[in-house]
Amino acid sequence: MASNIANIGKVAELRSRLLFTLLILALYRIGVFIAVPGVSRDVIADRMADGGGFLGLFSMFSGGALEQFSVFALGVMPYISSSIIIQLLTVVVPALDRLKKEGDAGQKKINQYTRYGTVLLAVIQALGLSAFIQGGTTLGSSNPEALLQPGFWFTFITVVTLTTGSVLLMWMGEQIQDRGVGNGTSLIIFAGIVASMPASIVQTISMSEVAGGELQTPTLIIIGAIIVGVIGAIVFFERGQRRIPVRYAKKVVGQRMYGGQNTYLPLKINTAGVIPPIFASSLLMFPNMIAGIFPGTAVQDWLNTNLGMGTILYNVLYVALIIFFCFFYTAVVFNPVDVADNMKKFGGFIPGIRAGKKTAEYIDRVLSRITMGGAIYISAVCVLPVFLQTEFNVPFAFGGTGLLIVVGVALDTVQQIESHLITHNYEGFGGPGQKIRGRRARG
């Protein structure tokens, strides 16, 4: 294993990509501690820690930048929200659907629209956050020392700074995607969550009876077992596949015979990866950010009461959005009709299934069943923090969305690194002749 990891340094392209990725993530972590001008960071950090609800979730996705009220306080949430909106619009707006089918040129145009949407949403969310800071709900008038000069200029500087920071993070994510390793946006969220986990571990240990807290040792052991179990379940499902057998008919071309081999079509249980919980969390945080523009109103009171993290309505909407995005994103990245047409073109068929339309229907039926199973698994993992908070009163960073993103992004990044190694004729992490494979699943 150690020698296989050492092979990374022997591939110049992979080495430069990894170093570039680490450099971008390091710059991101440095930016987390650069506060917005005119803000007393210590006072805001203390108050944000007591905010609860969507503030805790938002802070997790921003890697603690919200607690610092830094230039990256909005994180990549505006970019993710914009991506969701644009992808949904491609389904209902014919012009965007045509752009999507135009290949690289159309995709570049869609990416441009996504960037414009990111700027717009960042401005709106920055306005909401600025109004929330000045509104006296958590800070503002009850904490005048938190802001050096509240008012119009503070709002203006905050909106410009936070919007610029969000656009910069969007650019960083795109740079990692093009010149680094892994999904840039997911890696930025991954880095923020990993950076906050040591503090959560220390906080949980400090709550134990050994450290003078109220958390009993057996309870602490149960929590540790739950965390290990969740990690194992995530790895189990993320590597799970439904392998559909595929046969290719023999073809004679000139003096040679081609085809005739047996293979399989791998369908992942969780095709959408970590996208559904990220998208769902982003949408659920957005109304609270908008409500911050109107502090002290009935709308904000209703949202805080009924849509706060841990409420019944929040959990129901969260699970519903996760299931929706599991199916939606799977439909975006995997088209059974195209797969069936390509199989037919090259003489492939599924035993017992007629080629063409029947094959597409069969693949779609199997994919729908395993996607539902994957959606249920993701939903169960993501609502785990509510159980931990209710039963054990521990930080929600343990388990759920946080662990799912960390483990999922780590597995995806390792697989990409392994692909680079195998491409350059080096062994993968699994050893000679081995690579990280999907676990076969039936469904």
Would you write up a description of this structure?
A hairpin with a 2-residue loop joins strand 2 and strand 3 (256-258). The chain has a single domain (2-441), classed as Preprotein translocase SecY subunit. The chain has 18 helices and 6 strands. With 443 residues, the protein is α+β, with helices and mostly antiparallel strands. The model is unreliable at 136-144 (pLDDT under 50). The strands form 2 sheets. Strands 1, 4, 5 and 6 form a 4-stranded mixed β-sheet that branches.
Quick overview of this protein structure:
With 443 residues, the chain is of the alpha+beta class. 66% of the residues lie in helices and 6% in strands.
How is this fold's topology laid out?
Layout: H1 2-6, H2 12-31, H3 41-49, H4 53-61, H5 65-68, H6 77-92, H7 94-100, H8 104-134, H9 152-179, H10 184-206, H11 217-238, E1 240-248, E2 251-253, E3 256-258, E4 262-268, H12 275-291, H13 298-306, H14 312-333, H15 336-345, E5 348-349, H16 357-382, H17 384-392, H18 400-423, E6 439-441
Parallel strand pairs: 1-6
Antiparallel strand pairs: 1-4, 1-5, 2-3
Helix pairs in contact: 2-9, 2-10, 6-7, 6-8, 6-12, 7-8, 8-9, 8-12, 9-10, 10-18, 11-18, 12-14, 14-16, 15-16, 16-18
Largest sheet: 4 strands, mixed
At the fourth level of CATH, the homologous superfamily is SecY subunit domain
Q: How many beta strands in the DSSP annotation? A: 6
Mean pLDDT: 78
Helix content estimate: 55-70%
**Termini separation (Å)?**
33 Å
Number of domains: 1
Work out the helix count: 18
General shape: globular
β-sheet strand percentage: 5-15%
CATH fold category name: Preprotein translocase SecY subunit
